[in-house]
Amino acid sequence: MATTTVKAYGTTAPTEDLKPLDIERRAVGADDVKIDITYSGVCHSDIHTARNEWHGSTYPVVPGHEIIGRVVEVGNGVSRHKVGDLVGVGCLVDSCQTCSACEKDLEQFCENGATFTYNSPDKHLEGKQTYGGYSTSVVVDEKFVLRIPENLDEAATAPLLCAGVTTWSPLRHWNVKKGDKVGVVGLGGLGHMGVKFANALGAHVVMITTSPEKGKDAQRLGAHEVLISKDEDDMKKHQNSFDFILNTIPVGHEMDPYLGLLKIDSTMVLVGAVEPLKPFHGGNIIGGRKRIAGSLIGGIKETQEMLDFCGEHNITSDIELINMQDINTAYDRITSNDVKYRFVIDMKSLK
Ligand code: NAP
Ligand code: ZN
């Protein structure tokens, strides 16, 4: 198949910095949309993958699954998008479309293996893998291309494609509603969207953080209370009181302190720690019939619903815009817990 060479940023080994690379994009097929990328968000998952922290990375890795751009070409079978449209691509670029998960609009759990935006085998280019949004353009099947509300700030919508849907989906699935006491653990890229969404859904939102200095920001973002997880007295005051907790901590951690916060029959959903957790005491879920659950991004239909909700409620991410060349510093700042609250790359800097 004919391909086009485009500029990208990626890494060739877990311990290497990201640097300029050339990658191939497929020619536009009948169902494809070609997108000129304008902004690309920086997710902590990009770092886990670049540094092989989840042990599945194939190099080179070109991260980026919070992609915003304009359609510059469409295949002759494309009906959902046209040249000039503002569109987005999140963590998924393909799935089988026929298994029971895909039929339920849960493409992220495709039983035949979803194709993720980066570091997945590429169905279109034999022997190759997918490369993400730290690049100047991308070609994607139209079914995996989202419509972006034009009233929103373009750069600040990029993080909705991953951080947005990853927090929206569990809040919706567990039916968070007006008046529920909802805890969001970790004020980073995901957490700050979790706070905004839980607030917009009418919940009483408590930011649960290790960083007291983030308290003011948490309130500005929509938290009604701030709970410092390292403060044992404060944690005791909130014992057995939460209807729902969304936990975005990016690494394995002690679960017991958070489980103690849940009410009878309520749930803590993990989205961050894709790795072994510290052992926790069974009594902390047996007493109170509490639940621990997990959640992975969201399907395409749900992602579009989230974007439309953001358009109606004027919700975007709080971002720091950076140039592509600043990516290695940005990674170090994220891992040292110094991001307010999502980095977004201005892709003009790579063109
Ligand atoms: P992030 O911006 O780095 O935010 C993580 C936050 O967690 C930090 O700001 C910090 O908040 C808190 N934190 C960090 N280390 C901690 C520790 N050791 N103990 C307690 N709290 C800690 O990361 P992100 O982009 O939001 O991503 C969060 C995690 O979700 C990552 O692991 C990412 O790979 C994963 N993820 C999962 C999905 C999914 O579909 N399930 C999708 C996207 C990302 P405070 O300072 O407030 O404590
Ligand atoms: Zn992500």
TrEMBL record:
<dbReference type="GO" id="GO:0008106">
    <property type="term" value="F:alcohol dehydrogenase (NADP+) activity"/>
</dbReference>
<dbReference type="InterPro" id="IPR036291">
    <property type="entry name" value="NAD(P)-bd_dom_sf"/>
</dbReference>
<dbReference type="InterPro" id="IPR011032">
    <property type="entry name" value="GroES-like_sf"/>
</dbReference>
<protein>
    <submittedName>
        <fullName>Uncharacterized zinc-type alcohol dehydrogenase-like protein</fullName>
    </submittedName>
</protein>
<dbReference type="InterPro" id="IPR029752">
    <property type="entry name" value="D-isomer_DH_CS1"/>
</dbReference>
<keyword id="KW-0862">Zinc</keyword>
<comment type="similarity">
    <text>Belongs to the zinc-containing alcohol dehydrogenase family.</text>
</comment>
<dbReference type="Pfam" id="PF08240">
    <property type="entry name" value="ADH_N"/>
</dbReference>
<dbReference type="InterPro" id="IPR013154">
    <property type="entry name" value="ADH-like_N"/>
</dbReference>
<keyword id="KW-0560">Oxidoreductase</keyword>
<dbReference type="Pfam" id="PF00107">
    <property type="entry name" value="ADH_zinc_N"/>
</dbReference>
<dbReference type="InterPro" id="IPR002328">
    <property type="entry name" value="ADH_Zn_CS"/>
</dbReference>
<feature type="domain" description="Enoyl reductase (ER)">
    <location>
        <begin position="13"/>
        <end position="345"/>
    </location>
</feature>
<dbReference type="InterPro" id="IPR047109">
    <property type="entry name" value="CAD-like"/>
</dbReference>
<dbReference type="InterPro" id="IPR020843">
    <property type="entry name" value="ER"/>
</dbReference>
<dbReference type="GO" id="GO:0008270">
    <property type="term" value="F:zinc ion binding"/>
</dbReference>
<keyword id="KW-0479">Metal-binding</keyword>
<dbReference type="InterPro" id="IPR013149">
    <property type="entry name" value="ADH-like_C"/>
</dbReference>
